[in-house]
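User: What would this chain look like folded?
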Amino acid sequence: MDRLKAMLELREMLRRMEREVGLDRLSPVEQDVFLAAHSLTREAGDIVQSERIRKHRLVKDVSSATYHRALRALLELGLLENARGSRARLYVVRSDRMQT
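Assistant: Here's the prediction, encoded as structure tokens.
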């Protein structure tokens, strides 16, 4: 199998998985911010710092304004929540709100 065909098959599989869990309703940057935040937690309810999300390899090259717009959108969708007692910079990832 040539590389382009293999890449196509992987991309189609990834898109199907994104649709199945509801990631397809997010912009590409929102997806990356959400996945970066999720990757920095070990279990439900863990708190993740905005600074750690920002430094993640998926989002480190995103402009600051775009990053903050994506973060705000994820908060509005309820996929991220401010950690209890924190107004900003500390978040809880709500992956349980994604479709499964």
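Strands lie at 47-49, 80-82, 90-93. If you want, I can go into more detail on any region.
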